[in-house]
Amino acid sequence: MGITLVLLRVRRLDPTQALNGKLDGYFMKRSKRFALAAATVASFSMGMALIGIAEPNPSGAHGLYDYSPQTQSPTFQSLVLPTRDNQAITEAACGDCFSWDIDASGRAEPLTDGLIILRYLFGFSDQSLVSGVIATGATRTNAPDITAYLEVHAAELDIDSDGERQPLTDGLLLLRYLFGFSEASLIDGAISQSASRPDATDISVYLSNRLPSTQNLAPAALPPAWDFTAVLPNQVG
């Protein structure tokens, strides 16, 4: 029995499945009409995935998934995957792309990565930048490495796109987002008057697109008592 390698263009996925990090499990459950000999999912930092599958449905019926057998060497096809805001991501994969996972723990978290960026934008450095805010299992843990990472990707920190990187606008927007704020509560009082990205939806997409590939697109839930309407340097140290 021959084995055929094909590339799939994934469509109409249920975003809630991807939010739970179950894209591969969802694919297996919904693909009963496919005789699956092997399936692999390689996720990249900007939400891209390349799916390899053997033995397509011999009936040729195109159900939930469309496939295109390759008669020559396989070529890359862009995939449409759901994101936190159900926004399609078709950007090319990048081995050194920026994400909000500053300490390289696998997840962007408000009380680690969010506070690191807030402290950095307030001018913290050396041990005061990282003290008490490095996640368990992080692989980027010392101040020089974190500072170098932020300096290389400094342009990414201008979240509202006003040409500046400020703690009480950009830093606050990220912290609120990682805590689960959305819509008006995400941007209220945290947008520069000269911002060219002032809309909550656009900011959410910008932030979502820079979550790490291992984030499962699920920022932490916000305890009701928390409020980030004002932040001062002595409150984040």
Q: Terminal Cα separation, in Å?
A: 64 Å
**Biggest sheet layout:** 4 strands, antiparallel
What structural class do you assign from the helix and strand content?
alpha+beta
The percentage of residues in β strands lies in 5-15%
Explained architecture:
By secondary structure, the chain is α+β, with helices and mostly antiparallel strands. The chain folds into two domains: 1-92, no CATH class; 110-235, no CATH class. Helix content is 29%, strand content 8%. The chain contains eight helices and four strands. It has helices at residues 15-19, 23-30, 110-122, 126-130, 143-152, 167-179, 183-187, 200-208; strands at residues 6-9, 39-43, 49-53, 66-69. Strands 2-3-1-4 form a four-stranded antiparallel beta sheet, with no helix packed on it. A hairpin with a 5-residue loop joins β2 and β3 (49-53). The protein is globular, with a radius of gyration of 21 Å. The termini are far apart.
